[in-house]
């Protein structure tokens, strides 16, 4: 499955939301994807098209123009029946360090983060 977005919206530690880390984007066809995790929680919440699911064991790969989210086949219902989501983005290069920090906070101890930057 693929989504195209102009940019990734991130917050590595939202102090107004109990230090929650969040990555969100909206697709050019109206889709919405969001990853969130509170620092005291073990699981990551994925929201796809406004339908939330709690998962662990995510694998996320970030490059300058792509974010690949991979989940277990048994959790495919969280992404509308697919075990992966490829997000094509145009996030400004100067913002990618914050995207990396956010993904590391979300996946720490519960998933795999791969940087191709």
Summarize this entry quickly.
With 117 residues, this protein is mainly β. It has one domain (2-115). 10% of the residues lie in helices and 44% in strands.
List keywords for this structure.
single chain; 117 residues; mainly beta
N-end to C-end Cα span? 22 Å
Mean pLDDT: 95
The assigned structural class equals: mainly beta
Order of strands in the sheet with most strands: 1-9-8-7-10
Tally of separate domains: 1
- Using only C-alpha atoms, the radius of gyration works out to 13 Å
Can you give a write-up of this model?
The protein is mainly beta and 117 residues long. The chain has one domain. 10% of the residues lie in helices and 44% in strands. It has one helix at residues 96-107; strands at 2-5, 9-14, 20-26, 32-37, 44-48, 51-55, 59-62, 66-70, 84-89, 112-115. The strands form two sheets. It has a five-stranded mixed β-sheet, covered by helices on one side. A five-stranded antiparallel β-sheet has the order 2-3-4-5-6. The longest helix has 12 residues, at 96-107. The protein is globular, with a radius of gyration of 13 Å. The two termini are 22 Å apart.
């Amino acid at each position: 499955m693929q989504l195209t977005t102009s940019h990734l919206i991130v917050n590595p530690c939202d102090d107004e939301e109990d230090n929650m880390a969040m990555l969100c984007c909206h697709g050019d066809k109206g889709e919405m994807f969001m990853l969130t995790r509170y620092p005291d929680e073990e699981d990551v919440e994925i929201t796809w098209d406004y339908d939330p699911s709690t998962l662990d064991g995510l694998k996320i790969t970030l490059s300058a123009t792509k974010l690949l989210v991979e989940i277990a086949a048994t959790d495919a219902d969280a992404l509308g029946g697919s075990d992966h989501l490829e997000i094509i983005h145009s996030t400004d290069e100067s913002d990618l360090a914050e995207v990396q920090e956010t993904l590391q906070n979300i996946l720490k101890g519960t998933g795999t983060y791969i940087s191709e930057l």
